[in-house]
Amino acid sequence: MPIKVPDLLPAKSKLQEENIFVMDESRAFTQDIRPLKILILNLMPLKQQTETHLLRLLGNSPLQLEVGLLHTSTHTSRNTSAEHLKQFYKSINDVKANRYDGLIITGAPIEKLPYEEVTYWEELSEIMEWSKTNVTSTLHICWGAMAGLYYHFGIDKYIMDDKLSGIYTHYLTDPQEKLLSGFDEEFVVPHSRNADIRKTDINKVPELKILSESEQAGVYIVASTDGKQIFITGHPEYDAYTLQKEYDRDIEAGLKPRIPVNYYPNNDPAKTPKLRWRTHSNMLISNWLNYYVYQETPYKL
């Protein structure tokens, strides 16, 4: 089934080139189907790139989705034009009276900042509080997961000595969990972050359970026992070249980054990286949409 997006959203043409079924607003208007209403709070600086990443995964679902884009109005984006934001994005004040089947909160490259020093922390806190009553289930990604664990459960992050960047092997800690349905016992996921959350802190909270871990990358998937909050510490939405772009950017910035682990063939940045996590990423999003959103959301929001 298709995802419904605004007619002129730039990501639409890119996804159509990949044969992902995208329906624009004009065509969707003629269909008598109640699509799931999914809202994406996009905190990443390169918003159009993240739009494509997430819509690609959402478009693989057999469910019909109506996707809206949200940004923080208390932060001025330096990497996305004001025209793009005005045309395609809303703020919390625009949507606070609405209800949604699902919400995705993306990461942001600000792990080293204390949460309270983030310029939009107050607004993000408002959005996360609003989500508790207006959203069936929320999926948090990378820094979004750290921020969510801190806001909802008081679990703080820890800054790492070196950036965690690369493709890491993960395993299941609760194979019977619906979110993990169909997963291989081992699978790989991209990570790109400067902070971590600790298993010991999570285990102290009875409302949380760890579903997947990595020996090198640590805790990966955490879920609340009621399924309303899902926390993903990695970046399953990344495409094959996202880590390369970040690596090149860090080199240009003079940060002397380490080569992303298990990313380039033979650890050689001159060679083309291969996409090895798409199956896991599609299954993760499809399971979330099916078991935690579609199966739980009311017919009338």
TrEMBL record:
Residues given in the record as substrate binding sites: K163, S192, R249
Alphabetical list of Pfam families matching this protein: HTS
Keywords: Acyltransferase, Amino-acid biosynthesis, Cytoplasm, Methionine biosynthesis, Transferase
Presence of keyword Coiled coil: no
Site (Important for acyl-CoA specificity) location in chain: E111
Location within or outside the cell: Cytoplasm
Active-site residue list: C142 (acyl-thioester intermediate), H235 (proton acceptor), E237
Keyword Protease in record: no
EC number of this enzyme: 2.3.1.31
Gene Ontology molecular function, alphabetical: homoserine O-succinyltransferase activity
Site note Important for substrate specificity, residues: S192
Pathway assigned in UniProt: Amino-acid biosynthesis; L-methionine biosynthesis via de novo pathway; O-acetyl-L-homoserine from L-homoserine: step 1/1
Matching CDD domains: GATase1_HTS
Annotated catalysed reactions: L-homoserine + acetyl-CoA = O-acetyl-L-homoserine + CoA
Stated role: Transfers an acetyl group from acetyl-CoA to L-homoserine, forming acetyl-L-homoserine.
Record family assignment: Belongs to the MetA family.
Full protein name: Homoserine O-acetyltransferase
Species this chain originates from: Gracilibacillus xinjiangensis
